């Protein structure tokens, strides 16, 4: 099975090579004809569809691979070459179109509408946040939903087990960005309705749910509407139906909150699951612990008090306090997961997910700080996150800036922090302010 997938991937890599040679020939020409530009646009539209096929194929290879690092390296090389070729092709097309418009404009043979026409995509100004994102509401009253996967789970323990595809149904609160994960066995509307019922039983019935236009979501919406119309429920109960909202087709950025949650969940988990295959119960346990990790991330300081080292997290809105993890011995990276007991494998995956997510989340906050300020300076009294790879899952080291130390050029690059563990001195690349401080 793996050999067949690898051969199919080889044919996709050959398409990259052929497209690269084709672009090299075009770039060697001083000027392209109209026919060459049209041919390039046609080839580019077909080439852009290649990545979706590769991603599906490469995911299956990674799940079946005995050496996930090599599989991820192959993905990285393919993605790097693919995006470089896309950028080069678009640059060639844009350059040629710009030269033609300039020539036509200087010759006076083109109208204003033609100059501004062409294949340029419309880019309207970004709209304001909807009320569901900014109003103070109960958690998950306005939710968003999307799917992540597929992931392979074993139908039973021991040898001879069969691997079946499963998916993760991800619910996100639009107000506080809390996450709720449900494991589903397929993409049918029946499985989605069952996951929705489990979600409602634990989080309460939402007023509205935002999703994409997938047949799973649209079908479940029709099923719920038919149930409310055809059942013998009273009129008042029938009026308490959930409002389903769907984003436009092929516009995932309209549901960006759910897409971000999908990435946070899937990006690291699918790489870790190449090491082992869980049963349904083990996978459900693992997802619940990952849900706790996602809901433990700090959002903003609880107060401006310099002696307060507490940060507000999504879990504060859900249970009124921060989430904690059951103590468990730290597992090293050198441990062979195949020699661990079944329950230890779940803990191993959870700890590795925590390490990856913790590092990525802090890096993301540092990116936001860089782009939202002019100098990247940190004020005294700010609540910051401190990088610490030795922390157990769901524990975040927070501190208040007591003093900064400018260099000879007057730019501060080191800060003294007061934490629950005492006073620390860290460089700016190891700390980051919370985004809403």
From TrEMBL:
Lineage, top ranks: Eukaryota, Metazoa, Ecdysozoa, Arthropoda, Hexapoda
Biased composition (Low complexity): 104-119
Biological processes per GO annotation: DNA integration
A Pfam family annotated for this UniProt entry: DUF5641
Protein name: Uncharacterized protein LOC113498834 isoform X2
Coiled coil regions in record: none
Molecular function GO labels: nucleic acid binding
Region Disordered: start-end pairs: 96-126
Integrase catalytic domain location: 135-322
């Amino acid at each position: 099975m793996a050999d067949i997938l690898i051969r199919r991937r080889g044919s996709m890599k050959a398409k990259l090579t052929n497209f690269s040679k084709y672009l090299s020939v075009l770039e060697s020409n001083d000027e392209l004809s109209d026919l060459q530009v049209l041919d390039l646009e046609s080839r580019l539209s077909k080439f852009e569809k290649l990545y979706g096929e590769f991603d599906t194929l490469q995911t299956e290879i990674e799940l079946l691979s005995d050496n996930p690092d090599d599989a991820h390296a192959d993905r990285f090389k393919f993605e790097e070459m693919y995006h470089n070729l896309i950028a080069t092709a678009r640059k060639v097309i844009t350059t040629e179109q710009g030269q033609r418009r300039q020539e036509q404009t200087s010759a006076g043979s083109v109208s204003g509408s033609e100059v501004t026409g062409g294949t340029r995509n419309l880019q309207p100004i970004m709209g304001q946040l909807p009320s569901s994102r900014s109003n103070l509401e109960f958690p998950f009253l306005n939710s968003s939903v999307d799917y992540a996967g597929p992931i392979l789970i074993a139908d039973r323990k021991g040898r001879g087990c069969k691997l079946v595809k499963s998916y993760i149904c991800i619910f996100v609160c639009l107000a506080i960005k809390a996450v709720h994960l449900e494991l589903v066995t397929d993409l049918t509307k029946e499985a989605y309705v069952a996951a929705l019922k489990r979600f409602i039983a634990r989080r309460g019935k939402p007023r509205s749910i935002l999703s994409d236009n997938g047949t799973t979501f649209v079908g479940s919406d029709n099923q719920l509407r038919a149930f409310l119309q055809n059942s013998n429920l009273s009129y008042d109960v029938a009026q308490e139906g959930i409002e389903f909202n769907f984003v436009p087709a092929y516009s995932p950025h309209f549901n960006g909150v759910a897409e971000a949650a999908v990435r946070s969940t899937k990006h690291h988990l699918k790489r870790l699951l190449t090491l082992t295959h869980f049963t349904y119960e083990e996978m459900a346990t693992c997802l619940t612990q990952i849900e706790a990790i996602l809901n433990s991330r700090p959002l903003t300081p609880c107060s401006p008090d310099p002696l307060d080292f507490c940060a507000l997290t999504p879990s504060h809105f859900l249970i009124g306090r921060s989430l904690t993890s059951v103590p468990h011995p730290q597992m090293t990276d050198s441990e062979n997961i195949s020699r661990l007991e079944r329950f230890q494998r779940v803990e191993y995956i959870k700890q590795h997910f925590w390490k990856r997510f913790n590092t990525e989340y802090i890096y993301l906050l540092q990116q936001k700080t860089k782009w939202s300020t002019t100098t990247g300076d940190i004020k005294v009294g700010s609540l910051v996150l401190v990088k610490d790879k030795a922390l157990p899952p769901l524990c975040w080291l927070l501190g208040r800036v007591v003093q900064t130390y400018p260099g000879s050029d007057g730019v501060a690059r080191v800060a003294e922090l007061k934490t629950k563990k005492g006073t620390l001195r860290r460089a700016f690349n190891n700390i980051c302010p919370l985004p809403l401080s």
